[in-house]
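input
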Amino acid sequence: MTLPPPPPRVKVCCISSLEEARLAIGHGASALGLVSQMPSGPGVIADELIAEIAARVPPPVATFLLTARREADAIVAQHAVCATSTIQLVDAVEPAQLQRLRRALPHVKLVQVIHVVGPASLDEALTAAPHVDALLLDSGNPALPVKELGGTGRVHDWRVSRLIRDQAPVPVFLAGGLRASNVREAIEAVEPFGVDLCSGVRTQGRLCAEKLACFMRAVSGSA
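output
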């Protein structure tokens, strides 16, 4: 008898306080996303608050610093303040910079965001994958005059995400417009290692215990 695969990990993003961190962890989140300065989008908090939250999160829950910086030295300097277990690169970072980042922070996990805008995103993902620990597939648009680098609440083409998931040599997180009503369909379509969301479990910008519980039930298939 073949056992079904375990449900994907859940990363709750846009955590803005210790209270939200505790709420997400209490409902079973495996990782928390902490958003630093961005050109647009929700959930931005100061680096000092990111550091305060990260220091209080118990292992094995992972803490993700979401950074829009693209140069290794600048990212290293920011991480020195924030001290998260993982760095999520929300804008494209050149492979040479990823290699420098890896050498500078060998014990910190690196996750490169790929904004799925079409078939070309597969090439972008496969170029970045050898230099990072995971990919996160989102629905932003870095080509806009004011870049969208996450938190859009939009669903992208899961068929492209599935191609990336099947071909990438590292685990894949799926983000972009996920909520309790569509996450099972997303999991079946892409079979990601993890799912990531922000607005889908919030009411008027605040993390909602009821929506979070409903989402977790949907992820586990018990909804």
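quick obs: The chain has a mean pLDDT of 94.
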